[in-house]
Amino acid sequence: MSDETREVRQAGDRRATPRRYLMCRPSYFGVTYSINPWMEPDRPSSAETALAQWKGLHDTFATLGHDVQLIEPVAGLPDMVFAANGATVVDGKVLVARFRHRQRADESAAYLDWFRERGWSEVKMAQYTNEGEGDFLFVGDEILAGTGFRSDVRSHDEAHEFFGRPVVSLMLVDPRFYHLDTALSVLGDGEIMYYPEAFSTGSRALLAERFPDAVLAEAADAEVFGLNALSDGRNVMLPHRATGLAARLRERGYEPVGVELGELLKAGGSVKCCTLELRD
Ligand code: ARG
Fold it and tell me: Of 87, 111, 115, 233, which sits with the fewest C-beta atoms within 10 Å of its C-beta?
């Protein structure tokens, strides 16, 4: 079998499944405060550019056949575009975020209302600091949960009790990768990619043991937020500058889809940050 044939066959093995995503238009986007090392309020940022780039991501999802729902942005909440942080949704249960920083605290109410108004029955606001899918990623039938910068480690137990799923705690150690979804991405059935250097020694050992076949990212790809990616099982939307990861993904039979979200990276977010997966 030629290399070409093999590549085609592998790509054919990956199956996309239709997803439901929640997104928030960056109408009020701007870097007006700094709560992570990427945010420099003195550097110009533009809601208009952010909106155009965000629309590119939105349309990519729609073109791939995914159902995209929208939550209305709120004036004065410039980070609300990062919908991943609003909640964690698994088995139709919604654990709404409790933000670490006061600048984002009011986003919780908007998410609580959004889910309640649409008839989601099990909706609860987290008791402990919990930044939603920024720190809680569903893989296989368990949840990987990050701590160290944002979500309180006690929120991991809370998520375990609420969802009745195993929750595996991971310790983040590099402030540039302050949410789990900036350092680790779920690709498909039990398959992940991650940047080892973003994790403590213990967490690195745990990840190596549990995911021996994971795609390991290099610094250059991690630093352009290549891990802040979103997979539908076949297509992997990721920042277009993460060319090394795109090549690795292609070798594994995934279809990398490069997206330009440079304006949002000024606030420390990209593809995954903009997207909350609704799992019923
Ligand atoms: N400026 C936002 C913050 O620091 C960015 C959030 C990015 N979201 C994410 N899921 N990593 O809170």
Answer: 233
- Say if CB 82 and CB 28 are below 8 A apart: no
- Per residue in 59-113, pLDDT (tens digit) is 999 999 999 999 999 999 999 999 999 999 999 999 999 999 999 999 999 999 9
Domain with 118 in it: what CATH number? 3.75.10.10
Gap between the Cα atoms of 116 and 145, Å rounded: 25
**What's 58's DSSP letter?**
H
User: How much distance in Å is there from the Cα of 196 to the middle of ligand 1?
Assistant: 20
Q: If you measure from the C-alpha of residue 140 to the centroid of ligand 1, how many angstroms do you get, rounded to a whole number?
A: 24
Identify whether 205 is part of a domain.
Answer: yes
Within a domain: 2 = no
d(CA 239, CA 265): 10
Instruction: Round to whole Å and give the CA distance between 222 and 115.
Output: 33
Atom of ligand 1 nearest to the CA of 181: 11
Number of domains forming the structure of the chain:
1
In the predicted structure, residue 228 carries a pLDDT above the cut 70: yes
Q: Looking up tokens 């997104």, which residue turns up?
A: 23
Does residue 1 belong to any structural domain of this protein? no
CA atoms within 13 A on the CB side of 230: 26
Do the domain assignments include residue 255? yes
Nearest CA, atom 7, ligand 1:
269
Q: Is residue 8 scored above 50 in pLDDT?
A: no
